[in-house]
Design a protein that fits this description.
The complex is a heterodimer of chains A (243) and B (211). Chain A is mainly alpha-helical and 243 residues long. Helix content of chain A is 67%, strand content 2%. A two-stranded antiparallel sheet of chain A has the order 1-2. The chains are: A mainly alpha (243), B alpha+beta (211).
């Protein structure tokens, strides 16, 4: 729940900080990014946090934990997320995918030794992602302006609200036990390490080949989220621009 | 046979002959687009997978392959968005030349990640009689991950098929390039010359080995 408080404080802080920036340019408005000046500064801040705080520990993590161990951590974190994914599958009316999530949870929590192994994928039950931001999109909520959140990265008001919603329905947040903060902090930090490990090459590639890294990230993020919301189904061809 | 009846018979005959053609033509065109993707992407992956080639040979062969396949001018002009309008023709030509070098370096960097993988065409969608999206799957034989969905947008309006965009897991590269180029131009007063200089520097840096 501390992570949730940090998110709410972060969004509130951003709303206040946004008042200190000049009005948006016509280009920023056309790109659906009225807070572009502030978002660019937040991306710089995230880059510094990444370089001086997260980056070094990612290096240590890769040095100390072998590939099989990192895969186990990835599987375990994925298994912890399954109840939230299942709830969002249900909320979106995705019955088949909800069944798949539930089966994965049962199989990987038992045969997969608490989620460290992923026998479900080998049994024809592949994993998928789902979150409350996507659920809001399926229910018809607009994305809203682009936001770059401190720590959390690219987002939108819809996705930020989704993060809060996911934290509220996550059953591990409802279990009362002492030192809950260490559990939450540890889980969030390993999720970050795992994400960094999964996306390091891709992000480096984007940074290296970008004319404008900020705009490139914004475009990748929006297209990626649209793809997630469609659950991988092909977009209507009419939605693509003409060349 | 009266004149109205004759007219109706001719009309029916015309429809009967035209209908199969209307049904067959898009499918044939779609097959052309699918075959174009299947043949050429295999060739591109072969160039990237060929361990016998030196770095320079691989880059040169990939450039020849890519420029014979992709409509660079069409993509380049698209990526300028609203800044294309009113730009001097000499600036546009200089931009296309810089974009060509950048695209070769950037696409080689993108596709090098998929070397060693096999591609299968799984179908196609017709946007218009000369505009197709060919769906493929890239399979990594050394990974248990599900296949990667890669779509290719093929135009056939210039007489021969040309590639105008590629989508990896739903992310279209030309759209992404347009978004970042127009943002860059917005930040730099719409000056295409500044973008040309930046693209040329990037093409040089992308040609160097990454650290």
């Amino acid at each position: 729940m501390r992570g949730l408080r940090a998110l709410i404080l972060g969004v509130g802080g951003l709303a206040l900080a946004g008042c200190a920036y000049p009005p948006p340019t016509p280009e920023a408005l056309a790109a659906g990014d009225p807070y572009e000046a502030m978002n660019r500064d937040t991306l710089l801040l995230n880059g510094k946090l990444d370089r001086y705080v997260v980056g070094p520990t990612v290096g240590i993590y890769f040095l100390l934990v072998p590939d099989a161990g990192r895969r186990g951590v990835h599987n375990f974190l994925g298994n912890l997320a399954l109840p939230t994914i299942f709830a969002n599958d249900v909320l979106q009316g995705e019955v088949r995918r909800a069944g798949q999530s539930l089966e994965r949870l049962v199989v990987n929590s038992t045969l997969g030794l608490g989620g460290f192994l992923d026998p479900a994928s080998k049994m024809g039950l592949p994993g998928h992602g789902e979150d409350m931001g996507q659920t809001f999109a399926v229910w018809g909520a607009n994305e809203g302006p682009y936001l770059m959140l401190p720590f959390f990265g690219p987002s939108s008001p819809r996705d930020a609200a989704g993060l809060v919603g996911d934290a509220l329905i996550d059953p591990t947040n409802q279990i009362p036990f002492k030192q809950h903060i260490w559990w939450t902090a540890g889980r969030d930090y390993f999720t970050l390490l795992d994400l960094k490990g999964q996306t390091y090459q891709t992000v480096r590639g984007i940074q290296r080949s970008s004319v404008d890294y900020y705009a490139s990230l914004r475009s990748f993020w929006r297209q990626y989220r649209a793809e997630q919301i469609r659950n991988g189904r092909a977009p209507a061809p009419a939605n693509l621009p003409d060349f | 046979m009266t004149l109205p009846l004759m007219r109706r018979a001719v009309l029916v005959a015309a429809i009967l002959f035209a209908a199969p053609m209307a049904l067959v033509r898009p499918a044939a065109a779609a097959n052309v687009a699918e075959a174009f993707v299947a043949d050429n992407i295999h060739k591109g992956l072969e160039v990237l997978n060929n361990k016998k080639l030196s770095t320079v040979q691989r880059r040169d062969q990939f450039e020849t392959f890519l420029l014979g396949l992709v409509d660079v001018r069409r993509i380049g002009l698209f990526t300028l968005g609203q800044y294309r309008r009113g730009a001097p023709p000499e600036d546009l030509d200089a931009f296309i030349a810089a974009f060509r070098n950048y695209a070769v370096a950037a696409y080689q960097s993108y596709f090098a990640r998929y070397s060693g993988q096999t591609l299968t065409v799984t179908g196609s969608t017709e946007r218009s009689p000369t505009d197709f999206i060919v769906a493929t799957q890239l399979v990594d034989p050394n990974s248990s991950q599900p296949p990667l969905e890669v779509d290719f947008r093929v135009r056939t309006d210039t007489g021969k098929p040309v590639l105008v965009d590629v989508s990896v897991s739903g992310i279209w590269l030309s759209l992404e390039e347009r978004d970042q180029f127009t943002a860059f131009l917005g930040q730099n007063g719409g000056n295409i010359r500044t973008l040309i200089t930046h693209l040329s520097d990037l093409a040089v840096n992308l040609g160097k080995p990454s650290n």
